[in-house]
Structures are given as C-alpha cells and as structure tokens.
C-alpha cells in the first residue's frame, strides 16, 4: 500500500506552478495519491506557538499527523515522512517508533533499491541543484536583460505598450528567427496584422518555443525582414548574406507569462567534442532533437556512457548570466539510429505517453474468454431495441481491420419508405464516466497511428473485441435510423437510441465494390458465404447486393445535395475526409478510390451531422461539435498564382466556387497538377477543431470543408475520445426527451472547452508523430543505399514552389516533399547539359513569379517552371543530434523515365505500407545477425552440449511472424 | 494571478469548513438588565449585540403612529473596532441606514405587529466584530432579543448568507470569502413555515444556479434555527429555575 501525504500548506508566491502541478498529479486517480488536510483534523491540528517560525510549525504539524496516523492504524503500519529538512530529521528521526523521518534519497535507498531509473533521476536532480547553488554565488556578466515583473507586464499589456503572444521559433533558422503569434485580446485592439519577428537569441531573452511571452515592439527603423531563401539548419549565419524581404514588425521579449517547458530529447556530444569543451567537464552542452530548442547545459558524470543514446532531459532554470539553460538528465530512450529509440524519441517529443494499461484499469474491463464468454445481459435486452432479427446489418472496412466502429443497414418499411441505419459501437456502455479507463482514454484522447504500429486509446478487449462490431456476434450499438421517402430520399423521421445488433457480414471495400459492380466471383472471398448452401446463398447474396446498391444510391443523393451547398472534394474520398485533420501530402496518395469508400463516408457524415444537430438542440451550451472555419483569402494567393501559371483560374470566394474551379483545373497531360493544386488548397485552410457550443456564436459552427452547418464526430468511439463524449451527450439528450432522470452529469461549458483544447492538442500530436515516423521510415529506407548507383534512389519530381535559391519538389512515387537547391554552399549554380544531365558551375540565379533561371558564367542558362517534372536523386543526410533528413538533388531537368514503364503505370507509387515493411524487415535482420552471432559463440562454448533444437529457419519464421502490424491502411476520418 | 482558492479539490474551504457547514454559533439571551430584551451572538468571529425596547408608546411625533399595528424601529451600528481598519462610522451613514431598513422589513414580517396598535418596538443592533455575514448575525441576535422581550412573533427569524464558487454553493460566508467578490446572497427565513422574510442579493448570478444557492442558504438557516431553539430553551430553563427558587 502506498499513501502519500502532504500538509495542506503551500508557499503561494514561491511556487504556484509547482503547486498546480502537484494538484493535477493528485487529481489523477491513477497515481494513488491522497491529500490529507491535517490542519482541519481534530487530532492533527496543533496551534502555532508564539514566535515559532512558519516552517517549523508546519514540519511539527506534519510530524504530528504522521504520528497520529500511525496510532490510527493501530501501530501496525510504519509511516514514512519524507523531508529534505536536515533539522527535522535530526529532531524527529527517532522520536516515535514506527514513524520514520528520512530524506528522499534515504527513502529511495531503503524502500526502492531496485528502481534504477528513479535513483538516477534523483542523483541528477541533486547534482544540478548543487551546481546551481554554487553557481549563484559566483556572478558573471549578464548575458540577458532581466524579465520585467508580472505587474508591469500586465499593466503594459493593458495599456497596449506590450503585446502578448506565443513564441514560435522558425525550425529552419532556429538561431535567428522566431515569431510571436498574437494571442487573445491584444490582437484585437492593436492594428498589427502579421506576427512579430524576434530576431536573434538576445532579443528572444531566454524564452523557449511555445512559451507565452510579452513583447515590446522595436522602433520602425530597426525592423527586419524574414528570409525567403532555403536554408539548412546547420549553417547558422548564412542567411545574413541574402537580401531579406520587406521589413516586418520586429520586437524583443521583455517577459514570459507562462513557460511551456516539457521533456526534451537530447543527444550528448561525441567524445571529441567533449574534450574540446575542456575546462569544466562536469557541465556538458547537449543538443535537443527539436531544432527549435536551444542547447541545454547538463551537469553529469555519465556523459561518456550516454554518448550514443537519445536521452530525455528537463530544463530547470535559465539565469540571466548564462547563455544556455540549465537542465538535468532524466532517462535514456535508446540508441541513436535504432528504430525503437527513434520511435521513442518521436513519442516523447510529442508528449505522448503510452504505458501499458494498468491492472486497476484492466479490472474494470468485462471478460470474454472461451471458458467465460461475454453475453448480452437480459437487462440490456429489455432496454435496448433489438435489431438482431429485423435488420440486415453489415460493415464495410479495409481488409484486416480489427476495430470495426461502424455498421450499416437499409431496408424497406411496410409503408414503402426506406429505412437507413448507421450503428456505432456502444463504447460508453463499457466505459463509465470517470472510471480509471475513462480517465486514461481522456488523457490519450485518440489512438496514435505511427507508420508501423499503433497505440490504442482503449484496451484491446474493447477495441478489438467487445466494442468491435464483428460479423455473426451480438453487440451493443448506438444507432441512428432515418426513414427516407422511397423516391426522393427526403428524410422524414429520425430515431436515435441504443440497440443490439448482429452484423451479418464483415465486408472489405474491394469485395463490396465488386458486388456493387455485379461481379459475383468475389463471393468466394467472403467467409460468411462459404458455409452456406447454394440455395440460401443465392437468396442471401441478392439481399446483400440490393442493400449495397440501395445504400450507394442514397449516398449519391445526399452527396449531391451537399455538393450543391459547396462541399469540397480535395483529392479523393480519403483526403477529403482527411482534410479535417491533416495537411500532409503523404496522405494525398489515394488508394484505388472506390465508390464504396464514398458511400460509407457519406453515411458517416450524415450520422455525424444529425447527431450534431440533436445534441446541439438538447444542450445548446455544452455540446461538443466540430468546426472548420473558412480560410483567410490571403492564404490562397499562392494557389491562385500557381494555377495562373498553368492557365487556370481558381475562384476562392466560397467553398462552392473553390470546389468547382478546382474540378475544372485539370491538365489532361499531367494529373499531378490537379493533385498539387488541391493539396495547396488544403494547405491554405485552417484545421478543423472541436469546440464547445457554449463558447462561440452559432454562425461559427459551420464546417467549411463539408459544407454543413453543424458537424461532430460520432462514428469512431473506439479510437477517438471526442466520440465518447458525443455518445454520452446523445444518451443524455435521449433521456432528456423521455423526461428521465439524467444518470450522469455532463461537462459544463468551461470543462468541455478545456477538454476540446486537450483533444485538439492531442490530435495535433498524433498527426505530428505520424508524419515524423513516416519520415523516419523514409530515411531508413534510403539510408543504406548508395544514391550514385542504385536505381530506386532516382525519381521523378514535380516542382511546386519556387524560392530564391532553390525549388520545392514533390516526389509522387514516394510521397516525399522536399527542397532542392539550385545554388550550393560554394555559390555554384546548377546547369543542365543538352541531354539533361546537370552539373555545378559558377553563375547566378534569377527568380520571378513562377520560374527560376540559373545562368552560368559561360552564358548557358536553364529555367525551371512551376509544375515542371525533373529527375531527382534522393539521399539521406545523417545527423547525429536530430532526425535524419532526406536530401534531394536535381540531376536532370527532364522527367525521369522508369526503365520499366509498365511497372510505373501499374503502381506509380511505392505504397507507404511496403516501405514500412521493408524497413522493419531490415531492422529485424540486423537484430537477427547479432543474435545469430551470439548463438554461434554460445555453441562454441558448449561444444558438447546439445543445441536448443531450433534451426535458423524456425527462428527466421518466428521473427517474420512478429512483423509489426501494418496499420497504414486503416482509414482515418 | 489567481486569487485565493476558496474551495479546494478536496472540498475544504479556507477555514477548513465544508461547503454547507456553518461557523460555530454561540449565543446568550438577557445580557442587559435595563432593556426589555437583549441578546448576544457569536458566529465564528462575527459578534453582534441586540437590544429591544417596547412595545411602548410612540416617542417623538405622534403622527408616525400606525392605527392598526405597531411601528418597528430598527437601528444598526457597528463599532469602530469591528473591522480590520479602524474607522469611525457616524450614525445615519448609508450602510447602516440600509441595514436598519432591511432589519425592519425582516421583523415587520415576523412580529405580530397587529397585537400592539399605535405603539412602537425599538430594536438596536450593534456589531462588535465583523467577519462576514453581519446581516445574518444581526437578525439572529435580534430574534433572540425580541423573544427575550416577550414580544409575540410568528416564528423564529433565522438568517444566513450563501455564496457560489466553482459550481458549489457555500453557506455562511466568512469575510475572506465575501471579499473575494463572488455572488453573495442573504436570506432570512421563518423556518416553521418555510416562508422567506427577506432575500437580498446585489451581485450577478446565473439564473440556473439561483435555486442551488437558495437551497444552501435555506438549509443553513434551518440549521441556525436548531441552534437558536436550543439557546432559547436553555435560557427559559435557567430562568424558570431562578423563578422557582
């Protein structure tokens, strides 16, 4: 049993932040912490004596409480009081038997000798604290001006003298450029439109990316411009030579309102670098993985041992006298370049914590084992509408999908009208509000999909079993059912409620499409049909085909209606849906777009829309909806310019005109043009976000991309927490309609707003981690190949943006976006020979609106236009401290011809899944090689013993089975 | 920055009370011999003294006399040393006028004034120490004093204040809680019938929450009634023992 005690006292001014941190820790039921208000307890309260110091009195009170608790437990349970106060340890240490007063270090040594990580962490904190103490005595010259006191800052913000905002460091020029995005009230009354530039680290004044800072504007003659040139991270002051663009508001940081320090992943310098740092070997400058974070000073003796590892550190302080912040070492993640280590890095950098579900959490889960199968309870059977015998319910999902959230049904009613049903897994039945599992799911907020693995929001017993609407088993569901007119498909009635369903078929998209197209040979691939006899099989098949056909028909109708309002189609079904979350071009790679995709998506959108309407009507101030604000017109200017270069006109005035003009902007000779234009349009748009209806006006609810006035997420409660909240709201709305007592209390507007912010935040982290892991795999894929010789390192690229010293290129085959330089570090420019091959020669570059010309000293010139196809060579730049990056090099201004044109046509893209598989395999092979080596040695030692009877073949097979699940094709809506 | 945390996550208020808990109430009746009725009450650190004269003939201009009922005259004052800041409070300043008026309204509703036509009842209340809930303390003290004077009333008048913090109603606010600036409500209740003698709130409070706060105040007033009832019974017992001797 663990029980932590704190006195209720607090040093308010001293550490409000610590206090709040402690409070949130305490609130979280998973930590098993209990707060005991000793001052309010009859036997624990001690009056303060005359002249007694506050601290003394508090220590005495806490000790007294500990003694009381010891006696309260019948003297049978020893109590430990942990303090760093030496005097208290002296005084009380041996006063009462059974109550120990010890320091934290001592506590760890005695009670948790096996917790190595905790010991290391404790050592590192102690050391850095000691360092700081000794340091504060010796004073150097000041590196930074002091921050202004809080009152001055607040007064300054009110009077308009200072501006408040969030510091955003430019990733590519982390040393020089940072921007402050205006925030809250200050943006309204100041006439500043753009962000404020913070130039140099001095002006940044110890603030770190993500901090809420207060900025003072510099006089106009000191304003600077941002650089438009492409720039590599390592060349720090290179940009100074370039002519910057027109000056923009520039300022300097005068204070920090809120520090957003988190855990950072860093790399220790290599041995040579340590030696060069020389004089104080105790303090080591480590380089964070994130470019935007400054180097951190760590004092540790383990530097050499940690050289080849990715390490987590925490920043403690940043004094005015120090160029870099001080921090301490927390834990080791893994080796540099190792797949697991790098994945762990990505997780930490996105603040994703994915510990396995705890025992307490799993205890809340229902059981479903072969001996003890889960059954529909009679109570639920009475309360729910039973659709098991009346409705033909089926699901359409990607092949191999485990977590089936949604099923569909359609049937003809007695009056001739149609009934369309969407049935969603009833997760809230199993996840009670504020249960351990609920709290955990809320913290995770979403299932994280990385390139090669996923981290579930709910334990697999729910996500893959009891909540998954698998075929042929009884499941609880939440259903929305519409009665539609038989001919016009107008919605006449809608019903929401809890149901019991039994999905008849678990189809995959391709099979459903084949059935829809009337190609019945696919039937053999559907397991549900296999067991049936010929007679009943035919009848069942006809029934199913009719349902799919009808469904498609209805979906077309609804879609057409939405199109008339201006729903955007940005690159196939997948991406139009993805547009909500994501602007990453990787995901613009369409998988064979099938009409069934669209049908299913449309039904889900319809369900989401109707649920949004329902919960908003019932709870106008505390419903969770999803908005997609209309984009700013100025962001479209690049899109318009690019389209003009190709002779298209894009009308961006409304979503309708944008959708229409994007449809018409199609170059028959090059399908990539349309794709890129659509991706640019996506880039220009803001993200869709969750929000609470109480926090903004009704006009702002609109979903721009889907052209709906209200929208929410309802259809995937297994992998999104927002859907769980919406389910609870819907259930509450239904019981409200029935005038029943509301069972559970809903989130208030304020709490819901806070929750929405958290979910949005986590979604962003999920996207970032997904993107970063994909990039990681791309790099690993190209890493071991020699770019000069290998065929696959050459690819066709399309230029989609032009900068002063290079172009941005998109490689459709691999889905890679990146920069290619036309001018290298030595100032040489690219030139292309008559047959297209390129070389570096002295010369100059000229950039205009949509082309860039490189002229060599010899007078030769070559021009690159937007949307030109070029051949690029892909190589990997291996970086020690950061993630590796892909480098692109233009080697010819002619499109790249694949030696095998047929292959090129058949699959012009190497699917992400393939890439992932290949990399995972090679990693495993490397591991295997090591293992085999170890084994051989072992066998040599045990010359006369028997081997363990495992041939290399079985070992290989086993490892192949372990191949990580490929989830890249489970669609994300 | 954020102000004081009025209600901790564990549900404790600053002085260690729970949301619906009252401060310690101590009261005594008959503290002055020369007055017709008197009482002294302590609610936590708030201390108030009430004195009642009457019913007697109308003093001053006779024209104020009411033909069908007694005139209730209330005066409120607070001692210079009653608050943290020492301050002279002359008679007839706005605050005490208002308080006097409120007390008068409260007691006109409670005293059976029609039994004493053309006469006057004087209630003087003085606050000796103000630590929040002065109105409530005054009403409670005055109730006891009126009873001590033997003036017939419909019922006890029990008063209590209530506030609203973080979605929870707090009853019997202390000075610190009042000073934090949240909504605050004062309620005087006739506990037997549940009728409200006076309800006052100056600040803004969302309509949805009113019922909750009102219920908290009413419950607190009923608790006050239990305590006052005990005090009265004890007093009567002591008095009868004295008489019996």
Automatic annotation (TrEMBL), chain A:
UniProt lists the family membership as follows:
Belongs to the RNR ribonuclease family.
Q: Which GO terms describe its molecular function?
A: enzyme binding; exoribonuclease II activity; RNA binding
Q: Please, one GO biological process term?
A: gene expression
Catalysis performed (reactions): Exonucleolytic cleavage in the 3'- to 5'-direction to yield nucleoside 5'-phosphates
Q: Which cofactor does it need?
A: Mg(2+)
Q: What does this protein do?
A: Catalytic component of the RNA exosome complex which has 3'->5' exoribonuclease activity and participates in a multitude of cellular RNA processing and degradation events. In the cytoplasm, the RNA exosome complex is involved in general mRNA turnover and specifically degrades inherently unstable mRNAs containing AU-rich elements (AREs) within their 3' untranslated regions, and in RNA surveillance pathways, preventing translation of aberrant mRNAs. It seems to be involved in degradation of histone mRNA.
Q: What general EC class does the enzyme of this chain belong to?
A: hydrolase
Q: Which gene encodes it?
A: Dis3l
Q: For the RNB domain, which residue ranges apply?
A: 384-736
* Classification via Pfam families: OB_Dis3 (PF17849), RNB (PF00773), Rrp44_CSD1 (PF17216), Rrp44_S1 (PF17215)
Q: What is this protein called?
A: DIS3-like exonuclease 1
TrEMBL record, chain B:
Coiled-coil segments? none
Positions of the Exoribonuclease phosphorolytic domain: 21-152, 155-219
Organism from which the protein derives:
Cricetulus griseus (Chinese hamster)
GO process annotations (BP) = defense response to virus; DNA deamination; histone mRNA catabolic process; maturation of 5.8S rRNA; nuclear mRNA surveillance; poly(A)-dependent snoRNA 3'-end processing; positive regulation of cell growth; rRNA catabolic process
Per the UniProt record, one Pfam family is RNase_PH
One annotated GO molecular function is: mRNA 3'-UTR AU-rich region binding
Query: Which keywords describe this protein according to UniProt?
Result: Acetylation, Cytoplasm, Exosome, Nucleus, RNA-binding, rRNA processing, Ubl conjugation
What's the encoding gene here?
Exosc4
The protein here is known as: Exosome complex component RRP41
Q: List the InterPro entries hit by this protein, alphabetically.
A: ExoRNase_PH_dom1, ExoRNase_PH_dom2, ExoRNase_PH_dom2_sf, PNPase/RNase_PH_dom_sf, Ribosomal_Su5_D2-typ_SF, RNase_PH
Reading the lineage from the top rank, the first entry is Eukaryota
State the family it belongs to: Belongs to the RNase PH family.
Give the organism's phylogenetic lineage. Eukaryota, Metazoa, Chordata, Craniata, Vertebrata
**GO cellular component terms attached to this protein's record:** cytoplasmic exosome (RNase complex); cytosol; euchromatin; nuclear exosome (RNase complex); nucleolus; nucleoplasm
The entry's localization annotation reads: Cytoplasm; Nucleus, Nucleolus; Nucleus, Nucleoplasm
- Fill in the subunit field for this protein: Component of the RNA exosome core complex (Exo-9), composed of EXOSC1, EXOSC2, EXOSC3, EXOSC4, EXOSC5, EXOSC6, EXOSC7, EXOSC8 and EXOSC9; within the complex interacts with EXOSC2, EXOSC7 and EXOSC9. The catalytically inactive RNA exosome core complex (Exo-9) associates with the catalytic subunit EXOSC10/RRP6. Exo-9 may associate with DIS3 to form the nucleolar exosome complex, or DIS3L to form the cytoplasmic exosome complex.
